[in-house]
């Protein structure tokens, strides 16, 4: 296959996966795409949409993805967040965040990573405090956080939102972040809307957890999807 054709094919696949709006997927695809680009000896260009770069603030929305780009381009091995890439899957995973619903019992949680022969060297809180062996373990590519540790973050009187952001450092490549999120049921401004085909239908939602979600699915009262 000619390099130009390979570039077109890979660019299309990369763009399609990034459109799923998952931070874990984005980092995963970025690393894989850049490794293949380097091996095939052609330049990889990210068009830099609104999901990547905040132009007014002149900052990257996700600096980890930028680090993955530069490391992969120089053949430095990155550990990558794992995630579901099939949009039709009935259940999905991501290792960019873990979630707990307000009021439910706190239990241990595990997430998986694509280690690429790396090892985990440390897990630190946003304050720079290192977690100890009683708070986490990592057999293979699975990071397990103890229920005892998570109970210090998930509390009944805590407001929904990101309770902590952990930084995971590995033996090679970029460090990854893990958001520990507590959520509740989102609230809509109203449950009744008048359809006007001449304009957009705005449906204000107050999310209780992450400030933005990747998608919203609408279903009818009988459980079926709108035609």
List the SSEs and their pairings:
Blueprint: H1 3-18, H2 23-40, E1 53-54, E2 59-60, H3 63-73, E3 80-81, E4 97-101, E5 109-114, E6 120-124, E7 136-137, E8 142-145, H4 147-151, E9 161-170, E10 176-183, E11 187-188, E12 205-206
Helix pairs in contact: 1-2, 2-3
What does this protein structure show overall?
The chain has 227 residues and is α+β, with helices and mostly antiparallel strands. It is built from four helices and twelve strands; from the N terminus they run ααββαββββββαββββ. The strands form four sheets. It has a four-stranded antiparallel sheet. A four-stranded mixed sheet has the order 4-10-9-6, with no helix packed on it. The chain has a two-stranded antiparallel ribbon with strand order 1-2. The radius of gyration is 20 Å and the shape is globular.
Question: Strand fraction band?
Answer: 15-25%
Structural class: alpha+beta
Q: What about the largest sheet?
A: 4 strands, antiparallel
- Considering DSSP H and I runs of 4 or more, what fraction of the residues is helical? 10-25%
What is the tally of beta strands?
12
**Mean pLDDT score, rounded?**
75
Major beta sheet, strand line-up: 3-5-8-7
User: What is Rg?
Assistant: 20 Å
Show unreliable segments: 1-25
The string of secondary-structure elements, in order, is HHEEHEEEEEEHEEEE
Shape: globular
First-last Cα distance: 41 Å
- Tell me the number of helical segments per DSSP (H or I, 4 or more residues long): 4
